[in-house]
Structures are given as structure tokens and as C-alpha cells.
Amino acid sequence: SAADLVVRGGTVVNAGWQGAADVFVSAGRVTALAEPGAPAPDGSRPEEVDATGLLVLPGGVDPHCHVGFTSGEFTSLDDYRGCTTAAVFGGTTTIVDFAIPRPGQDPLEAVLERRGAAAQGLCDSALHGCVVTWDDTTEEQLRAMAGLGVSTVKMFTTYRGETMADEYTVLRTMKAVSATGGMVVIHCEADHIIEEAQERSGARGRTGAEHMGDTRPGLAETASVAEVLAIAESVDAPVYFVHQSSPEAVELVAAARRRGRRAYSEAVAHHLVLDESAYAGEHPERFVCCPPLRPRATVEGLGRHLFTGEISTVGSDHCCYDTAQKERYRHDVRAMPNGLPGVETRLAVLYSEYVAARGLPATRFVELVAAAPARLNGLYPRKGVLAPGADADIVLWDPAARWTVRTGDLHMATDYTPYEGRELTGRARTVVVGGRVVVRDGELADPRPLGRNLPSGPVGTLH
Ligand code: URP
Ligand code: ZN
Ligand code: ZN
Ligand code: ZN
């Protein structure tokens, strides 16, 4: 078929393969990977995008991205337009957001309320549903959600009184979700252990942001992961653990996978790069997230699991709060909004710290940030791979770009980045979304909001 765009001269990197190839695009889809210099199909005069010296990647898929996220009295500061603009500048062309019910709201209502916002996005998006409590309508709601293409369902074992689900609810939801071909994605921190640690900190007057690490011990995470793995096994359901912050937590999941379970670990960029020393710095509140940043040895141990395949995906856990919101409860992390802005920096931080600095293969990088998140969210092979038939979401990545992270050069709706001043190697230069050049040489070239809400199919399996 006639081509309308061709990316020439670059090195295509997919999860399992890399090599020199030109990428032909027609009507928003990849039509062919051809040998360099191959002629365009008869009769077409495609726009040429020069990728000489660059890597050509499938657009990043961020499996964990909170857009305009409300928690207690705080709502994070972006909307679909803002979040996806930052995403695309950073080389991510699909985000998976969360439809978290407000107190008293049904899971299905939360999905219906949020899915329309996708149309304001510069790129496509999908949704995770969320179950907090189980009642006699929940199973039917989950079926309706699956019918709308929402097949991943978020749960929490912490945040009591807000989004925490009890073990019965986790079990029943896992059973019902897996029956529809979907999967529970879960934040594991045993709430009783967290609350005890918080109480202890409170009794000593040590609740400020500088004490964040003590208020959410790693033990709470491993305890909850072990329990949830057992629940999943008891109902033969797949399970995906979000933002795992320690090698111990990842190893529990890897052991389950070796026993034949479908159990997966997500790490997020900040736990792979930043450590608890941030809490001793000038703005400790800017680094308050759950789970907290861990000791340096934990960060290194977690990072080693990127190389072995034990970590399946890398997300951002993007939450766009600004310093004023975080500082409001500077002296009490129990009331402070949790989470760090990161949708725009996910690829560059991981590439720089692990591909450029430590030799992680670029193919593995693509697997972690695009292919595996697409598979595990039922979006593959439409997303996460450059192959005929895939959506033409293409990142021209400059592997040699040296740059310094500055908030003012980023597009996230906040006044800080946790990576301020960090020198990075590697950066998205030009980004094609649905066959259109949306970012060209670092400048916004097409601001049209043509984002689509993506229905996810049955979630895939990784080895
Ligand atoms: O600190 C975090 N992660 N905040 C966002 C909510 C969550 O737990 O994912
Ligand atoms: Zn979480
Ligand atoms: Zn501050
Ligand atoms: Zn999160």
C-alpha cells in the first residue's frame, strides 16, 4: 500500500532484535520494515524522516501513570493533555492511567467517568480499573468493565479507609478478573505493619518528610507480596505487582514464576536510580512516595534484576504534585500527597543509568519500557513493537545526546523534577504518534489532541 511516511537510516530496536531498517508507515500504521534505502511502494511519495545515527524504537508504554489523581484533599496537577504532552516529549506514546473510585463510587462508574478524557491526549491511553470493596454487584461490574476493554484492575493492601482492600476482596476480585482474561495489578504494603511504624514515628515526633523511610519499612512490602502471591495461587489467577522497591520483593515473585505462576514485577524509575539520601536533602518532601526511596544497597540490588529478566516492566508511577502541595504537610508524611512526577523522564533516566552506564542491552530496555508493558496490558502487538500492522508510534532516540535535566526544559505541570541537575546520556529527539510527527527535534510539531482510549485485550504472558 502507498506509504505516507518513512523513517530512514536508523537502527530499529525491538524487544528481541535490532538492526538497520527503514520503517514505512501508512494511515497511522507501520506497513513494512525494509532494508535501508528501499524504494517507497509504487506511486507514493512519503515524507522522509532522517534517523541517521539514531535508534528507532517503538513508542514507550507507561504501565503506571496517574493523571489528575485525587488522594484525600489533593489532586495532582495535570490532565490528559498535559500528561500526554510530557509523555510524548519523553518518548512515551501510550499511558495506562487509573480509574480509582472516589469514596463510595462504583468501579464501573469510575471507568465511565474517566474514559472520555483520552480524547484530550496527544497520544493513546488505556485504563486500569480499581476495586476497593466487594459487594454483590462487583462481579457484574467487572464483566462490564472487561466489555469496555478494561481488563486490568488495580488494588491496594494499604491506605486504610481510602483505597485499601481486604484479603477477601483481593481473592474474589482476582478470581472474577482472571475469569474475564484480565489481571489484578496490586500495590502491596501490609497496612498493619505500616500503621505500627507510623505510630512509632509519631510517638517520637519523627513524622517529617526526612523520616519517610522509617514510616514504610520494606518488611511491609515483602509480607504483603507473599500473602497476595498465595491468594493468587489459590484461585489460579495471574498477578502483577506494581512499583516493587526491593530485590527481596522481586525475588518472591520470580520464585512464584519459576513454579509456573503468572506473576510479574514492575519497578519504577525512581526506585532504580534514587535512594533514601534524598530525604536528608533540602526538599525531602519532593521525594515522598510509596514505597519510599530505599537505601543505596537496595537500589543496586533492585537494578541487578533488570538484567536477569526478573523485573518484567519499568513504569513511572507518575504523580504530578508540586512543591507547595507536598510542603503543605512537610512535617507529617501521613497526610502528604505521595508520588513523584516522572512520565517524561522514565525512558531517559533508565536509558542513561542502565543502558549507557551499565550495559543493559537496548533490546532489553525496549522490552522493559514498551513491549512487556504492552503485553501485560493486552495492548500487544498494536503497541510495544515496530512491525507491520502495529500503530505507527515511533521514537527516534539519540543514544549519544548528553543533557542536564532542568525542570524548565520539561513539560510536566509541576515546579520540580526529582532528577534536577542530573547529567543524562540519551534522549528522545523526534516522536511519531499514529503516523504523525508530533515532536520534531525536541519541538512540538503537531498539538492536535487525537488520543484514543485503547481497549485492552486479554493480558498476555511473559516467560
Ligand atoms: O507514592 C505513590 N505511589 N503515590 C501514588 C499512589 C500509589 O500508591 O501508586
Ligand atoms: Zn501504589
Ligand atoms: Zn521543600
Ligand atoms: Zn501508583
TrEMBL record:
<dbReference type="InterPro" id="IPR032466">
    <property type="entry name" value="Metal_Hydrolase"/>
</dbReference>
<dbReference type="InterPro" id="IPR006680">
    <property type="entry name" value="Amidohydro-rel"/>
</dbReference>
<feature type="domain" description="Amidohydrolase-related">
    <location>
        <begin position="55"/>
        <end position="438"/>
    </location>
</feature>
<dbReference type="Pfam" id="PF01979">
    <property type="entry name" value="Amidohydro_1"/>
</dbReference>
<dbReference type="InterPro" id="IPR011059">
    <property type="entry name" value="Metal-dep_hydrolase_composite"/>
</dbReference>
<protein>
    <submittedName>
        <fullName>Amidohydrolase family protein</fullName>
    </submittedName>
</protein>
<dbReference type="InterPro" id="IPR050378">
    <property type="entry name" value="Metallo-dep_Hydrolases_sf"/>
</dbReference>
